[in-house]
Amino acid sequence: MRRTTALVSAVLVVLTAGCGVTVPTDPEGTLERVRGGQLRVGVTVREPWTSLPDGDDAPPEGREVDLVVAFAEHLDAEVEWQVGSEEQLVAALEEGDVEMLVGGLTASSPWSSRVALTRPYVTVPDEHGDEENHVMATRAGENAFLVELERFLVAQDVQQDVGGLP
After folding, report:
1. What is the spatial distance between Cα 137 and Cα 119, in angstroms, rounded to a whole number?
2. HEC string of 60-80?
3. How far is 166 from 47, CA to CA, in rounded Å?
4. Are strands 38-43 and 78-83 parallel, antiparallel or unpaired?
5. pLDDT digits (tens, 9 = 90+) for 16-41
6. Cβ–Cβ < 8 Å for 42, 102
7. Residue 158: what pLDDT?
8. pTM of the model
9. What is the tens place of the pLDDT at every residue in 116-157?
């Protein structure tokens, strides 16, 4: 039985290697489209993670905004911000109008059934002193993009930077 399983596994590896199959993958090609192009990001205000400075043309600010800008640089992409409510931006994410959403989202987000959430990249106490795991959201099913973002966030060691936030 083991020998048959090993043989079938070996045949599948050879067959998929010849087909150019990669794992993880993006059905909509998000990661490849963003690399060297444009990263469209939905941002909702939740300080200190995100904020909007005075002035109509000023870009968003905040800890997550800084991470997004660094992630875009990592992908050699330009960031295009879209400001809105979480509900509006989740809809934009589902429609493919933005690639990711930031704004102080936590792992207990009510949107988790409609979007893909990263693994928590930082844990901080909330206003009651309970631990709160922060995440970012991407379009569901775009797994190569999600994995690239998660690897980037892990490499940033955000926990050390935020210390005792908020």
Report:
1. 10
2. CECHHHHHHHHHHHHCCCEEE
3. 9
4. parallel
5. 555 556 678 999 999 999 999 999 99
6. yes
7. 82
8. 0.83
9. 999 999 999 988 999 999 999 999 999 999 999 999 999 998
Max distance between CA atoms of the chain, in angstroms, equals 68
Rounded Cα distance between 137 and 52, Å, is 19
Ramachandran angles phi, psi of 2, nearest 5°: -60, -40
String of b and e for 134-145 (b: at least 16 CB within 10 Å)?
A: bbbbbbeebbbb
Whether cis (ω within 30° of 0) applies to the bond prior to 24 is yes
Residue 88 zone, left/alpha/beta (φ > 0; ψ -120 to 50; rest):
alpha
Count CB neighbours of 68 within 10 A: 22
**Spatial contact of 159 and 129, defined as CB atoms under 8 Å apart:** no
SS3 labels along the chain = CHHHHHHHHHHHHHHHHHCCCCCCCCCCCHHHHHCCCEEEEEECCECCCEECCCCCCCCCECHHHHHHHHHHHHCCCEEEEEECCHHHHHHHHHHCCCCEEECCCECCCCCCCCCEECCCCEEEECCCCCEEEECCEECCCCHHHHHHHHHHHHHHCHHHHHCCCC
